[in-house]
Amino acid sequence: MDLAALEQTARGRLDPAVYDYLAGGADAELTLADNLAAWARLRLRPRVLRDVRRVDTATTILGTPLPTPILVAPTAYHELVHPEAEAATAAGAAAAGGLMVLSTQSNRSLEEVARHAPGAPRWFQVYVHVDHGFTEELVGRAAAAGYSALVLTADLPVLGNRLRDVRNRLEFPTGMVLGNAVERFGAGGADAVAHAGHFDAGLEPATIAWLRDRSGLPVLVKGVLRGDDAEAFVAAGAAGIVVSNHGGRQLDTALAAADALPEVVAAVDGRVEVLVDGGVRRGTDVVKALCMGAGGVLVGRPVLWGLATGGADGVRAVLLGLQEELLRAMALCGAVSLAELTPDLVARPR
Fold it and tell me: Which residue among 82, 116, 129, 246 is the active-site one?
């Protein structure tokens, strides 16, 4: 799976403004680039003369058995790249055995997405609206539809300055709706800038327990780059931390996810799950993340490129390709299980 080539194929099929919206980042896009570069800067120290005839990538995250620790990150507006939108993404993820995190900003409702992947593991990503009653309604619907965890996005109190979208004067197609809020916002609800104005910029750690109590679901906090933040969120009741800078789309020059991961892992000290997203493009990136203490990774843009080029089958192909790369990288590192991906396998060259 050549993800760089796949992206170029997807780019050729998408409206240029849509491609820029998906691929772009904030301001000068330094963090966007550094997310990729940070994984590449790390080097592996493989063990050799190990019996690697049977390599097992299976894991369990928040009580859910998974064939690999590769999850589908929450991304918005899948209808921009494929007419079946998140329904196709969910079907493709399920076919690969993966767990999908559905965005609040999906074009298909959380119930419809669940129907297209019955029995598949799924989480729901939450933006807390100023109207807390609406958010309570959303998380209650997620619990009723079989979503087993909530992922609270914490790094979007305001929308980042995405210059590509400004230059392109980005407008979404007329009639494209937010599937989870069509009755509330109607056909005009899929305006990214306008809708971000509905998000609550006054969130605090107490929001974690509020969401947990309203839904009955465990809550992970996504968008964490600091150990002290992670520690505070665990104390406030978080069931997991997602190390992330929103794919470089919020605060430019923010720390790359790979560089922030060790501090967060150390602060959490095994008390809750730690996941990471941002720039994961290869099986070796997954190995490095797990060696540094992550329990899994989330992949966003590559899934969208698969969706754009092949619908559900394209999503499945991306996830299975990464799974195959993970299997090969583990064998070449002399590791037959995820438990054998230990910190000594990773080095940071001077």
Answer: 246
